[in-house]
């Protein structure tokens, strides 16, 4: 029969229980043993959900109190010396507080120290702790936490598949410290510890270990490609089976490399790179398992079970028992359970699937292609088909006027009407700014008072007029402080904005917001991404009245601030029924409307925050046209 499994499950839980417990521990409101007890309860709950759904394995090793890459660093004893590593590793264990100090610089015990660097995990909105690597560094097994979690799962009667960041991806994600050197010189020592981990897991009775190697979808230098062959030829001696997991894209130039590695199975992302499936099968060894990720692990839309069944049946014929099914990547990147959503309407809910629902989709697909579907599976198939048919025909999704505007865009719309010297001179005369004007990014702190006012307003305890007066008072304070500091281009401080993306999404057509759609961004930080379900347009101005009010408080040019279209796109769950580029251009047109309205009351400067762009720029308006000014990170 077709094996169904997942690559990982959200660890925060449906009500962010992990966040609350971890932060309570940091505040001294609970003990370490109480925190560990919460961790055990959450792991058991997540394993039970996977078993109840009918998966053949539960995922062990995907749990972390902070970050899974950090867990590997700790397991390898890769603890920077400023965290008193020598003392903490005594007895072979790096304790939990050392892990927290690596992540955030402080913990209930141990001396504070500069936290490790944090950055985004590939192209996701999840952030990992960057391993610090030193020339000549050696590694030793320094944590038994993974083995303890395996024992927990076995004692509870589950069948575990262990998941672990692969050795090459861990090195790929690391950064050199104390001088540049070839990170691959550390590989042998890393592999020594991985070999020890795999051998110990085998003694616990583990049959399958999933080694996550998303670095294989990157453009790898030749030395790194060769290192994969060397590493996995060493690891093949482990007395268990290895599933090499790749995701976030296609294997590309690494396809032949990945398929000839001596592993028992290979997982590929068939959502991001569906065309690679046949090529991988053609090169797969005769005894190797292929796990295909046709259920989207990065987005929240319901799977088209009927269409996927038709795509999978030929694969089943070719692979037989060697075909496994899974989501495209770990479900860490989607919310936990759609069942608790009460603020979304029934139609929109019928189009969605969170992590818990994706378990059912994977299991149902496996049963459908095996001809062992239950009445529940047939019901899910029918419900999915009807919901997706309704979504395609829904008038909520398509706005003809938006399509018409996109079609009317011409190359001339992207051309400047004057050269840079002409624009710069006009700008100099109009704004009368000094040679090096001062300004800020724009966001002043969201104080406890601001948050309290927003909560009271949402709860109906504070009327609209009173809420606006509170926000105006905060804006006046922000402008006054900038006046005192003689800032040349002040900002209004964004007191009224709950979030740089959510604030705009709440005022744009085509967006929806969940109540419990939390996903982990890093550590205990969780975000609730907007859902872009339909064509995007702007029914009314979003920031103009706040900018108008702020401008009345100063004679200096007040800078308006907008979150850019790519950032809004990337920080949202984006509809999957049209190219992402089309959705991004719709957002851009909506923001263009806002820019034009900002120009009308006389705002001569505005800033578009777009964290995905290479250039960090401010925008100016002269004679009704937008011109770029300010500081550039890349030459223009």
TrEMBL record:
Q: Which cofactors are named for this entry?
A: Zn(2+)
Pfam families per the record?
Meth_synt_1 (PF08267), Meth_synt_2 (PF01717)
One of its GO biological process terms is: methylation
| InterPro entries in the cross-refs | Cbl-indep_Met_Synth_N (IPR013215), Met_Synth_C/arc (IPR002629), UROD/MetE-like_sf (IPR038071)
Where would I find the Cobalamin-independent methionine synthase MetE N-terminal domain in this sequence? 4-316
- What Gene3D superfamilies is this protein classified in? 3.20.20.210
> Which stretches make up the Cobalamin-independent methionine synthase MetE C-terminal/archaeal domain?
436-604
The pathway where this protein functions is:
Amino-acid biosynthesis; L-methionine biosynthesis via de novo pathway; L-methionine from L-homocysteine (MetE route): step 1/1
The GO terms describing molecular function are: methyltransferase activity
User: What EC number(s) does its UniProt record assign?
Assistant: 2.1.1.14
UniProt keywords (A-Z) are:
Amino-acid biosynthesis, Metal-binding, Methionine biosynthesis, Methyltransferase, Transferase, Zinc
Q: Which SUPFAM superfamilies match?
A: UROD/MetE-like
The answer to keyword Transferase applying to this record is: yes
What's this protein's family per the entry? Belongs to the vitamin-B12 independent methionine synthase family.
Q: Tell me, what does this protein do in biology? A: Catalyzes the transfer of a methyl group from 5-methyltetrahydrofolate to homocysteine resulting in methionine formation.
Q: What protein name does the entry list? A: 5-methyltetrahydropteroyltriglutamate--homocysteine S-methyltransferase
Source species: Vreelandella olivaria
User: Which gene is the coding source of this polypeptide chain?
Assistant: metE
């Amino acid at each position: 029969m077709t094996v169904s499994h997942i690559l990982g499950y959200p660890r925060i839980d449906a009500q962010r229980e992990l966040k609350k417990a971890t932060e309570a521990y940091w505040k001294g409101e609970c003990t370490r043993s109480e925190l560990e007890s919460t961790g055990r309860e959450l792991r058991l709950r997540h394993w039970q959900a996977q078993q109840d759904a009918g998966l053949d394995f539960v995922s062990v090793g995907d749990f972390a109190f902070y970050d899974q890459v950090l867990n590997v660093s700790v397991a390898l004893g890769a603890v920077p010396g400023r965290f008193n590593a020598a003392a903490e590793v005594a007895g072979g264990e790096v304790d939990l507080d050392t892990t927290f100090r690596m992540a955030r610089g402080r913990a209930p015990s141990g001396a504070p120290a500069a936290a490790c660097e944090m950055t985004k995990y590939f192209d996701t909105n999840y952030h990992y702790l960057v391993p610090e690597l030193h020339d000549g560094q050696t590694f030793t097994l320094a944590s038994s936490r993974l083995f303890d979690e395996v024992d927990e799962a076995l004692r509870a009667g589950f069948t575990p598949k262990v998941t672990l960041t692969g050795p090459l991806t861990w090195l790929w994600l690391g950064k050199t410290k104390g001088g540049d050197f070839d990170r691959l010189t550390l590989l042998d020592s890393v592999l020594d510890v991985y070999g020890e981990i795999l051998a110990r897991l085998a003694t616990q009775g583990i049959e399958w270990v999933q080694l996550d190697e998303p670095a294989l979808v990157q453009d790898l230098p030749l030395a790194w490609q060769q290192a994969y062959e060397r590493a996995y030829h060493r690891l093949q001696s482990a007395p268990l089976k290895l599933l090499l997991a790749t995701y976030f894209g296609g294997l590309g130039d690494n396809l032949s490399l990945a398929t000839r590695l001596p592993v028992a199975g290979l997982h590929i992302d068939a959502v991001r790179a569906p065309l690679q499936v046949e090529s991988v099968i053609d090169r797969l060894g005769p005894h190797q398992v292929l796990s295909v990720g046709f259920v989207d692990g990065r987005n929240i839309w319901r799977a088209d079970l009927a269409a996927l069944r038709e795509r999978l049946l030929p694969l089943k014929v070719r692979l037989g028992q060697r075909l496994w099914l899974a989501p495209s990547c770990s479900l860490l990147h989607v919310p936990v359970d759609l069942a608790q959503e009460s603020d979304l309407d029934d139609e929109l809910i019928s189009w969605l699937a969170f992590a818990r629902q994706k378990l059912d989709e994977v299991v149902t697909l496996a049963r459908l292609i095996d001809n062992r579907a239950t009445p529940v599976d047939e019901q899910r198939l029918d419900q999915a088909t009807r919901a997706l048919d309704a979504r395609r025909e829904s008038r909520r999704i398509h706005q003809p006027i938006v399509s018409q505007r996109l079609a009317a865009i011409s190359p001339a719309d992207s051309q400047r009407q004057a050269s840079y010297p002409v624009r710069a001179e006009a700008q100099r005369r109009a704004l009368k700014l000094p040679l090096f004007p001062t300004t800020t990014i724009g966001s002043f702190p969201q104080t406890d008072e601001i948050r309290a006012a927003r909560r009271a307003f949402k709860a109906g305890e504070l009327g609209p007029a009173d809420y606006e007066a509170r926000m105006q008072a905060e804006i006046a304070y922000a402008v006054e402080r900038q006046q005192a500091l003689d800032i040349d281009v002040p900002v209004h401080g964004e007191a009224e904005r709950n979030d740089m993306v959510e604030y705009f999404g709440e005022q744009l057509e085509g967006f929806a917001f969940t109540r419990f759609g939390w996903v982990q961004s890093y550590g205990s930080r969780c975000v609730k991404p907007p859902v872009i379900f339909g064509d995007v347009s702007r029914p009314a101005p979003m920031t103009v009245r706040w900018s108008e009010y702020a401008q009345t408080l100063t004679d200096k040019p007040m800078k308006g601030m907008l979150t850019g279209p790519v950032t809004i796109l990337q920080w949202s769950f984006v509809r999957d029924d049209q190219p992402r580029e089309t959705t991004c251009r719709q957002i851009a047109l909506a923001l263009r409307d806002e820019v034009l309205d900002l120009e009308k009351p006389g705002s001569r400067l505005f800033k578009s925050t777009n964290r995905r762009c290479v250039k960090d720029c401010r925008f100016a308006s002269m004679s009704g046209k937008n011109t770029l000014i300010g500081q550039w990170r890349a030459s223009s």
